[in-house]
Amino acid sequence: MQSRYVGKAIVLSTALFVAVVTSMLVPSAFAQTKSKLTVLSEGDASTDGARQFVVHSALVGREYVVVVSPPPIFGSWVSADLKAAGLKRLEQKLPAIYALEAGYGIAGPMAQMMAGVATMSPAYVVSVGYGEGQANFHRTDLLHRSVTEGGVTYGGGGAKFQAFLTEELRPFLEAKYPLDPRKAILYGHSFGGLFAANVLADSPESFDGYVIGSPSVWIDPQVLAKLAGAAKRNGHRIFVAVGEEEDLKMLDGASQLAATLTAAPSSFKVEKRVFAGEGHISYYPLLTQAAFTWLMPPPGADRNAITPPPEALQRITGAYQLADGRVVTVTLKAAKAFVEVTGMPGESELLAETAQRFFLPGGYSVLFTFEGAMDAPATSLIVNMNGTELRASRKVQ
User: Fold this and answer.
1) Do residues 89 and 152 share a domain?
2) 11 closest CA partner among 106, 142, 114
3) 383 with 355, same domain?
4) Do 252 and 284 have their domain in common?
5) Which of these ranges, 128-132, 312-316, 376-380, has the smallest mean pLDDT?
6) Alpha carbon of residue 281 to chain centroid
7) Are 387 and 242 contained in the same domain?
8) Are residues 287 and 355 in the same domain?
9) Is 97 helix (H, G, I), strand (E, B) or coil?
10) Are residues 288 and 321 in the same domain?
11) Burial 59-96 (b: 16+ CB within 10 A, else e)
12) pLDDT category, 14, cuts 50, 70, 90?
């Protein structure tokens, strides 16, 4: 599993080091919100650290199955001797991607794999669906307005389902996991894509980003006019997609929606993709990969590593003691710098951004700044992770 999901040992060691660093940070105060949600059951969903919740919504009056897939430092491919460190609670708050239709069972595992190989930032994926043997109410939940076809009327439950997501599920999860409420993303496809478009139209501030795949605009054309009004408000990041081989009404709907979102004076940041040779369902894995990469690029992806002079690496080697007594050790191996925390397994390579500032590969926002004169050993080290700083002084040998 390790070679399949991670590819390089450095990814594991980097993820482990991040887990170690976060264990040093002052614990964040998670939201304390009373939720109307009733948790009927909770348990492991798989061996990759995902948890499954069966919940009852008081607002909708129905049960849902929610699977929370954490970022890969919690993953089962962490080897046995590293597992305890890998399972440490992450105090850095991360985005959550809310995938409708249970993420088709692949959104969560794909995000774990992508974050593991640093093609996206670490994030939680919350897959929302229905239990086995229960009626699938997606035609009710995902449509904000009722539709009559062949004498059968359905839909109209979108507002209640939206309230379930924003007023019940999100507060519950944001109190339980280190989720950043400012960086939530809604991911919908087909009816789910239409639902995401309606949430964006009615209350764009509900989510920071939106993935709208193959929106069924044909069944609810009113959404276009509502989106035109929303586009004049605060800018959001929106990924719109469709398969090239889908029927004409789906292709037209995606085009009309993207055009509405980008028409002046829109402040939305929109990316539209047509997946060549793909049908309605077949492009979903490609959509997941492309949308997650676009919406959640790895932190520091725009950083350029330099090759520092040998003396710059020599001056940072040594041991640095933190206020709590733990020691951060920097060593050289084959003209490369590596960092580890004494007493903890694993190490990670340090990449130089300047002769004094270094960063970790693998999509984690961790910077190391070595202080002191450039012609002498560094006197101290500042570790900055997601805006939180830790200072360590050089330990005298």
Assistant:
1) yes
2) 114
3) yes
4) yes
5) 128-132
6) 22
7) no
8) no
9) strand
10) no
11) bbebebbbbbbbbbbbbbbbeeebeebbbeebbbbbbb
12) low
Q: Could you give the CA distance from residue 340 to residue 346 in angstroms, rounded to a whole number?
A: 7
Q: Is 388 exposed, middle or buried (0-12, 13-18, 19+ CB in 10 A)?
A: middle
Domain boundary residue, one of 266, 295, 324: 295
Tokens of 227: 């989106």
Q: What is the pLDDT of residue 387?
A: 61
pLDDT tier at 362, thresholds 50, 70, 90 = low
CA torsion through residues 358, 359, 360, 366, sign:
positive
Do 284 and 377 belong to one domain?
no
pLDDT for res 47: 73
Provide the pLDDT for residue 5. Answer: 35
**Section 259-282 average pLDDT:** 93
Q: Residue 358: give its domain's CATH number.
A: 2.40.128
User: In the predicted model, is pLDDT for residue 10 greater than 90?
Assistant: no
Whole-number mean pLDDT of the chain? Answer: 84
Q: Any residues with CB less than 8 A from the CB of 5 and at least 6 apart, and which?
A: 72, 75, 77, 112, 113, 116, 117
242 and 251 Cβ atoms separated by less than 8 Å: yes
Task: Give residue-wise pLDDT tens across range 38-74.
Answer: 999 999 988 778 999 999 999 999 999 999 999 875 3
The residues pairing with 272 across neighbouring beta strands, listed in sequence order, are 240
345's tokens: 């397994």
Q: Is residue 305 part of a domain?
A: no
Residue 102 gets which letter from DSSP? G
pLDDT digits (tens, 9 = 90+) for 150-206: 899 999 999 999 999 999 999 999 999 999 999 999 999 999 999 999 999 999 999
Residue carrying structure tokens 């994926």: 125
Whole-structure pTM value: 0.70
Phi/psi of residue 354, each to 5°?
Answer: -140, 180
Give the C-alpha separation, 290 to 197, whole Å: 19
Residue 337: is its pLDDT beyond 50? Answer: yes
Name the residue range of residue 63's domain: 2-295
Amino acid at 314: Q
CATH number for 34: 3.40.50.1820
Same-domain status, 66 and 129: yes
Q: What is the Cα Rg of the chain in Å?
A: 23
Please give the single-letter amino acid code of residue 257. L
